[in-house]
Amino acid sequence: VAALPLLLHQYIVNQPHHPGVVSPDQQRHACAPQPGTSGAAARAPSTGKPSFTNAFDIRSVGCSGDPTMFEAFWRETGDAAELVIPGWQTMSYFSDVGNVCWFMEPLFDQQVRRLHRTVGNAAVDGYHVLVGTGSTQLFMAALYALSPADADQPTSVVSTAPYYSSYPAVTDFLRSGLFRWAGDANSFVGDSYIELVCSPNNPDGAIRDAVLSSGAGKAVHDLAYYWPQYTPITRRADHDIMLFTVSKSTGHAGTRIGWALVKDREVARRMTKFVELNTIGVSKDSQLRAAKVLGAVSDGYDVGGGGASRHRLFDFGRRKMVERWRMLREAAAASGAFSLPAETSGQCNFANETAANNPAFAWLRCDREDVEDCAGFLRGHKILTRSGNQFGADPRYVRVSMLDRDDAYDIFISRLASLK
Amino acid sequence: VAALPLLLHQYIVNQPHHPGVVSPDQQRHACAPQPGTSGAAARAPSTGKPSFTNAFDIRSVGCSGDPTMFEAFWRETGDAAELVIPGWQTMSYFSDVGNVCWFMEPLFDQQVRRLHRTVGNAAVDGYHVLVGTGSTQLFMAALYALSPADADQPTSVVSTAPYYSSYPAVTDFLRSGLFRWAGDANSFVGDSYIELVCSPNNPDGAIRDAVLSSGAGKAVHDLAYYWPQYTPITRRADHDIMLFTVSKSTGHAGTRIGWALVKDREVARRMTKFVELNTIGVSKDSQLRAAKVLGAVSDGYDVGGGGASRHRLFDFGRRKMVERWRMLREAAAASGAFSLPAETSGQCNFANETAANNPAFAWLRCDREDVEDCAGFLRGHKILTRSGNQFGADPRYVRVSMLDRDDAYDIFISRLASLK
């Protein structure tokens, strides 16, 4: 869930080399449009945004939370994560009719549990695993499951600011009578609510706990970033509802697979019902691909099983994140115009060493007195960010993705360092 | 959209060979549970419901609209529809940043247009193609796109009875303030509405046109069954919004891919926005699989391109449907207790011959004076159906799937023929 990169209404593309009229929706989505590859002429699977060809590329950078940083890792692993699907396979709606989540592939369930046991970041024994079309769908499913169907008023949905900008958008876009966005959890008054707890938090990387507690209140823990590449694994989380996604754990955003770990069977049943009504289940192809990919990650650390390999995703990811955060802190220091959250660290039970928190997003503050709109200021220098006011925070702050490909990240860093 | 097989609250499984407590959700989904294959022990992709082993199998039949009939075809085609996905492929959220539907794989767009040109069932020139997680998601997207965001009251959603039972359920489950189910189109009074036109109609196979017409009203045409295996292709449909799905065209229900053909760019943009907010796009893996499968279907008829093969999906499908309808009409006649819609036919521009309408569902009426609840009566004889009252119709009617595997269909026929 903590992944939605697209509600980027403030993103404007500046493309003097590619004139022509750019429509509003192209402006919104085209972080870096790819001239000439649109439409029916294509003969190959898509590649997302194009690579930057040199340091003088005038296209904008910094856009979206697209986790393409991980592509380099998966190119190295060869066919360990390759999936072959025969034409006749998994044609049925049904995957596992004895499971609460009847449309979930047993292989996916199995590899989700295995990876959590390998990493130690979440409890799985006694939990139902549910699969969703990305964790965004399971976020909506949780709101549906936790809102009393017979209530007079919609249930209030809250989260501590700065909160992920998609929470209010996804909660309210259908104007549901079941649930309604109610803003910052810290200013909420009442007994009945759903509190969204994102930890590490999108946008600022903070480690969080629920701030509200009442008998009638419920919490949904969005743990999309609770993986060793981003943060020390300090405890095995065991909340009632925990959301995860391959987008941020392995980088496979295009696969649109998320999962929930749910304690209560009735909540699991109602969440499943949501997915049934919304999309009649979840792509089997992507479930099988996710199972393959998650399995390849676990294999990398399977010392006991003899399968441990030199392809270790979390080692790759942590190395990259440490390096990128070092570059970013140096660039901010060179500029002098920006500040970043202080670095924190903790004992990582997975890596068995002290590790820093290296968030997937940078929560950057512009310290210049003459700049009140940091996103606008950066946009003027071809750095695309999401403004703090989208997260219920001060527009002197912006969120910047740390997960882009190397070429784009390097250009972002050099542009930032040059700003005074 | 006309595919949702799972809102089957009336389906009860009778399993004296498999005692143990069956929970309500298992009862609902377990049309034919598969003992011993549930959970994490599985080592292979799922196969849906298990095959029947002999004619004396005591499990129930007739359940759901699962299109597993088509598996036999795809097993015959060999690797023509096999998909290989390397671990590093399509990891980005983005597929085609210049397209309104920025998350759609260009290969999918291309093969959708090619198949419609091959079959002649729908116009594609001047249309936007949009991809969805099944056509159910695009059905919701259409309601979202066509409902004015600033209206005081939810827009009324209507369809002529008998209407697909999922229309009211999917329209109302989130209690949206944007749209609300308003029942049978024939009794609707007002100017502002969204009319759902399913043709051939689920459940009764009727060829339909919109019954309402006003300047402020909108229509959504659900053409899930407008393919040569089910009905003669009498014209190239060119409505404002047309919905299709691989579930019913090729039988790949588990792939969860539907598409919309949309004339108006702003409607296409808003439908895309719905999918963005709901699931941040659609599985690339399944889009690529659908492109492969649709391409294999077109290849079968590509005489000009020299690629025409002996594997022709619509020939297979029509042969099966003709045979199954013959068997069903004979069984109903043998029984004497049931009647079926009269057979209709027309000139099929695709097959270039007169062809009968062979719907994907049988709309069966029980003519026995002592039976008011046909679904309950059949359930007592281990035939699972959906009651007419789910479709806004008389409970003397039931809907029965015509798309199950041969073994299950044969048992259904023999059980039906024996009822007096």
Structure description:
Chain A has 420 residues and is of the alpha/beta class. Chain A has two domains: 160 residues, Aspartate Aminotransferase, domain 1; 195 residues, 3-Layer(aba) Sandwich (Aspartate Aminotransferase, domain 2), CATH 3.40.640.10. The first copy, chain A, contains eleven helices and 14 strands. Chain A has a seven-stranded mixed β-sheet with strand order 2-8-7-6-5-3-4, sandwiched between helices. In chain A, strands 9-12-14-13 form a four-stranded antiparallel β-sheet. A two-stranded antiparallel sheet of chain A has the order 10-11. In chain A, helix 5 links the parallel strand 3 and strand 4. Strand 1 of chain A pairs antiparallel with strand 1 of chain B.
Topology:
The structure is a homodimer of 420-residue chains.
Chain A: H1 24-29, H2 71-76, E1 83-85, H3 106-119, E2 128-133, H4 134-146, E3 155-159, H5 166-172, E4 179-184, E5 193-198, E6 218-222, E7 241-245, H6 246-249, E8 257-262, H7 265-279, H8 284-300, H9 313-335, E9 338-339, E10 345-348, E11 353-356, E12 361-366, H10 374-379, E13 386-387, E14 397-401, H11 406-418
Parallel strand pairs in A: 3-4, 3-5, 5-6, 6-7
Antiparallel strand pairs in A: 2-8, 7-8, 9-12, 10-11, 12-14, 13-14
Helix pairs in contact in A: 3-8, 4-7, 9-11
